[in-house]
Amino acid sequence: MTILVLEIPVPEIEHPTAQDIPRALLRLWPMFLGYFVSFIVLGMSWVAQHEQFHFVKRADQALLWMTMLFLMLIATVPFTTTLLGRYLDQQAVVVLYGAHLLAISLVHHATWRYATRNRRLVDPHIDLEDVKIHLRRSLATPVIYLIAIGLSFMSTVLSVVVYAFVPLVYGVLPSIYAKREGSRPRKS
């Protein structure tokens, strides 16, 4: 996540005046917007994966490869973030960024579905309500990304702002991690 900031160029100003630096930084606002959105989306992805893997008790080849695909997609976020920061006004770039985030969220969802199907790789006593809560949360994310992609036809900036609100899904919808920390017993 910290690599994202390396793509924000430091302005090159020969003999700067007091007004030059603030103006140069202001011109970088699309880069800072891309950084902010990507940082919080990646943070949400990290929290979601942490929550998900708390319940995974075993791994098989399929799970390992799904996780590798997830990490590969995560590792390429700095590239699409840089594109977004440089070409925020280009709808194709905003759609590409959204499609990238959509792919990440769909792999995350597929990994959870795979791991929990018939309690394949999770604790055999996991509360099925926990499974359903995470499935709902992991499906809400791609739906919001699709909405944001659609909004890019009206406004690229509005679309990016919607991408930034996706992490709220993890604040609004119930958290199985928080519930686990509570006192609710598991059903078998």
TrEMBL record:
Subcellular location: Membrane
Cellular component GO terms, alphabetical: membrane
Transmembrane segments: 28-48, 69-88, 94-115, 135-154
Family matches, as InterPro entries: TMEM175-like
Record keywords: Ion channel, Ion transport, Membrane, Potassium, Potassium channel, Potassium transport, Transmembrane, Transmembrane helix, Transport
Top-level taxon of the source organism: Bacteria
A GO term, aspect molecular function: proton channel activity
Catalytic reactions on record: K(+)(in) = K(+)(out)
Topology of this chain in the membrane: Multi-pass membrane protein
Family per similarity comment: Belongs to the TMEM175 family.
The name this protein goes by in its record: DUF1211 domain-containing protein
